[in-house]
Every structure is written in structure tokens, then in C-alpha cells.
Design goal:
With about 130 residues, the chain is mainly alpha-helical. The protein has one domain. It is built from three helices and no strands.
Amino acid sequence: MARSLLASIFGMRCPSCREGKLFSNSNPYRLKGIAEMHNRCPNCGQVYEPEPGFFYGSMYVSYGITVAIYVAIVVLMTIFGNPGIWEIVISLSVVLIIVAPMVFRLSRSVWAHMFIKRKKESKKND
């Protein structure tokens, strides 16, 4: 069953076949192994890091995701009340600490999907 692009990105799946897992451990909150990725897709054999330092670019994606989260929180806080600067700073800090492992992994998944081409699906003869 073929996954959609968004399901593959958010499911942390291989950008090539959209089936194999990107990360060795599916729990992002196990901080000891947060960055451990398979070298190749367990399903199709796609190399996940085509060149050394490939995932350094995912920092730009991470920055964009973090800014979007911050803007959403500040807008929501402003709509539902009149927060002071320290309420905003504390809220943003708490949210960042909670979502940082997910943002890290999501940014790597987005980056991989941007630069690793999807393989054409083979048609099976019945």
C-alpha cells in the first residue's frame, strides 16, 4: 500500500519507497538514540545519507518549524488573553523543551524527502 507524501514525512518513512523506517528507534523521547538512523532503508535499500553532512541542512527546516510553532503559540495566547512577556517566554520555553525531539526528527524527515527521489512503483503482474 503506497503512502502519501505527508504520511511518509510525518510517519518518518523512507522517502524512496515510503515504507521503511528512517530511524532505528521509533521513540523520539529516548534521547540516547534520538539521531540513530538506519544507513539504508530496510525495505528498498535506499542510502539515507547520500553524502557526508547531508543532514546539516535539516537545521534550516528545524528553524522554520520552530518559528511556525512559536508564532502559533503567541497568536493563540494573544487571542485567548493578554499575556505578559514572561508568560510568553516561559510558555515558549516549555513547549520547545517538549517538542524538540519531534522537531529534530521531523526536520530530518522533511530534508530527506526534499532531496531523495521517490522510486517509481513497480506494477505487479497478477
